[in-house]
UniProtKB/TrEMBL annotation:
InterPro entries: Class_I_gatase-like, PRibForGlyAmidine_synth_PurQ. The active site is at C87 (nucleophile), H196, E198. Keywords: ATP-binding, Cytoplasm, Glutamine amidotransferase, Hydrolase, Ligase, Nucleotide-binding, Purine biosynthesis. It catalyses: L-glutamine + H2O = L-glutamate + NH4(+); N(2)-formyl-N(1)-(5-phospho-beta-D-ribosyl)glycinamide + L-glutamine + ATP + H2O = 2-formamido-N(1)-(5-O-phospho-beta-D-ribosyl)acetamidine + L-glutamate + ADP + phosphate + H(+). It comes from Streptomyces coeruleorubidus. Gene3D superfamilies: 3.40.50.880. The gene is purQ. This is Phosphoribosylformylglycinamidine synthase subunit PurQ. Coiled coil: none annotated. Pfam families: GATase_5 (PF13507). NCBIfam families: FGAM_synth_I, PRK03619.1.
Length: 226
């Protein structure tokens, strides 16, 4: 029986179908989760996808963090459930304090949509093991609240513990501290990033490359070998 990976849809989510397709291409079974669900349907991992949950009112991810589905997700993530937050999903994970730091409006105050070059900094998390540390990849990026910020102590801790998962290369598109594009929690089961790997899983779309597919093959291999 293959791994079952949940994809949460909030009001305003945009990329849930794309994420489900990426999971299916990797060989796992996507399971649709609704924001009002009070259980996770016994999935093996969860992806919080991109979009503008609840219209980004108050702050991006601030309302979604209190959706009913988040209660079991937070509890199980703290117990080791693999969780990936993409763009708005990353914002939700910081609001839920499953990942450190927070997201602000891009420093240039404009929405951006572009192919973004990244460097893989940590290839030992549940979601990055099919990459190699130092590998350079291209992943689509689209956001307006993508500037990752944290206090100096938090940044120092992330750097010293190797918890910066991805870093922007060539250009910092949003003013993020230390060029950080994605981070992991201490256990490595929770990862968040602003770029969209689900849009880089087939040569026909996105960047024209499949640099995002290893996110989904990484978690599949981890679950199958667990």
């Amino acid at each position: 029986m293959t791994a079952r990976i949940g994809v949460v849809t909030f009001p305003g989510s945009l990329d849930d179908r794309d994420t489900q397709r990426a999971i299916r291409l990797a060989g796992a079974e996507p399971v649709a989760l609704w924001h009002k669900d009070k259980d996770l349907k016994q999935v093996d991992a969860v992806v919080l996808c991109g979009g503008f949950s609840y219209g980004d009112y108050l702050r991006a991810g601030a309302i979604a963090r209190f959706s009913p589905v988040m209660e079991p997700l937070i509890e199980q993530a703290k117990a080791g459930l693999p969780v990936l937050g993409i763009c708005n999903g990353f914002q939700i994970l910081t609001e839920a304090h499953l990942l450190p730091g927070t997201m602000l409006r891009n420093n240039h105050l404009h929405f951006i949509c572009r192919d973004q070059k990244l460097r893989v900094e940590n290839a030992e998390t549940a979601w990055t093991s099919d990459y190699t540390a130092g590998q350079e990849i291209h992943i689509p990026l689209k956001n307006i609240d993508g500037q990752y910020v944290a206090d100096q102590h938090t940044l120092d801790t992330l750097e010293s513990e190797g918890r910066v998962a991805f870093r922007y290369l060539d250009v910092n598109p949003n003013g993020s501290n230390n060029d950080i594009a994605g981070v992991a929690n201490e256990a490595g089961n929770v990862v968040g990033l602003m770029p969209h790997p689900e849009h880089a899983v087939e040569p026909l779309i996105g960047t024209g490359r499949t640099d995002g597919l290893p996110f989904f093959t990484s978690i599949l291999k981890k679950l199958v070998n667990a």
